[in-house]
Amino acid sequence: MEKVKSSKRSSNKNQQNQLPFLSILAQDVSTLAFSEKAIFSPILKRWHPLSAGVAVATLHSCYGNELKQFVSSIGELTPDILQVLRAAEKLEKDLVQIAVENSVDSEDGGKSIIREMPPYEAESVVSNLVKSWIKTRLDRLKEWVDRNLQQEVWDPRANKERFAPSSVEVLRIVDEALEAFFLLPISIHAALLPDLTNGIDRCLQHYISKAKSGCGTRSTFVPSMPALTRCSSRSKVSGVFKKKEKFQKAQSRKSQVGTTNGNGSFGIPQLYCRINTLQHIRTELDVLAKRTIVHLRSSESHNNNIANGTGKAFELSAAACLEGIQQLCEATAYKVIFQDLSHVLWDGLYVGEVSSSRIEPFLQELEHYLEVLSLTVHDRVRTRVITEVMKASFDGFLLVLLAGGPARAFSLQDYETIAEDFKFLTDLFWSNGDGLPADLIQKFSTTVKAILPLFHTETDSLIEQFKYMTAESYGSSAKSKLPLPPTSGQWSPTEPNTLLRVLCYRSDETAAKFLKKTYNLPKKL
Length: 525
Hints:
mainly alpha
């Protein structure tokens, strides 16, 4: 130790980069041990059969005391610390090897000498230091995510890719953490990598969950269904007055929609930005996983099996992105149809006279939304969002027909108009072949197309179908008195509640009398 200290003092004057003190000491102890084994032990063996073993056990203990003090003062991982721990590990291997070779002929094979050399556990110290380093990095990442999410306004105009700037920063910090991890001069990258990637995965999941929270779901925007009523021959007349009143309400709401453009960070453009952001993260996760494998293969701890396993590094975040995109697409679609366009759909379509309150105003405004959507949403998720808007518009159309409240009534003659309006709606999404694929439109329009024929089925026939389907559903209990079938929301031409609702909105004396006699339904709410 004196020799190392004096050489360190003289070299410090030369201002050269020097090895840490304990690294040099480890090298010198190793040299001394091999010298002991070569020169002294063969002679001393005459008086002590394990003289080399005793010598290395003593040196092991002396160096161990110095190392213990050093380790207890470590605060964080630095290159110098790693260098010392590596030197200690190498010294220990040298000393143990000498002890084992010296004890080949002894009765216990040198076990007693080895017992006197408690391991330095340098690798365990390195492992704990790296784990502490990882924790510090992850805590910093989590803090950063929270701070930037508070400032994020989800403005699609923030950059030309139309995703949130905070996601770019989060991914940059993740990339830097992975880079820094693989630059650590250690041999246990593969063993400790899951600690880092799992922590990053949790941080990204946190970001993703915040990106979609508060945006609502389908049920947030679909209006509650009014109670069932029956029509009367005067329904159309009273409907005209209701239409006028509703139209005035709709106009005032429309002007509000125009000025506020949605509600802060949850407006339609902001929802588009959130969708784009999750799509961007999803794409970048693949890149990160591949880059991690490349790093691992070029690191000292190269191991093919582990490298192949890291393909699953960010599995939870990737799944959360997919789920988040789906939830946001659905929320956006139902918000457009049932909130932003409710003045032309829920409050306007077929209120009063069917012929004078047709679907054109709704289609015109919906087309504008679809144009903005096509310009804003990432091309990889655009079709999915438009498909959800189409599904929501079909749901809205059916809701108007089957749960539109007493301001609506349909006669048999209205069927042609309604069927034509629905064709206009599907045509908007087909867009002469430039829109959604025809088979996709066909798939999601099946329910509406199955129910529309009920609107030109004779009332007597409808009543018979309703009685038959209700008896089928309820069995013998339906013979004495027809039970009122509950609303399932699963519309179908063979579902009793759907048939009942068509009768409720049938502008026809026969239907009205049947509903009054069977269920005593009121004419108005």
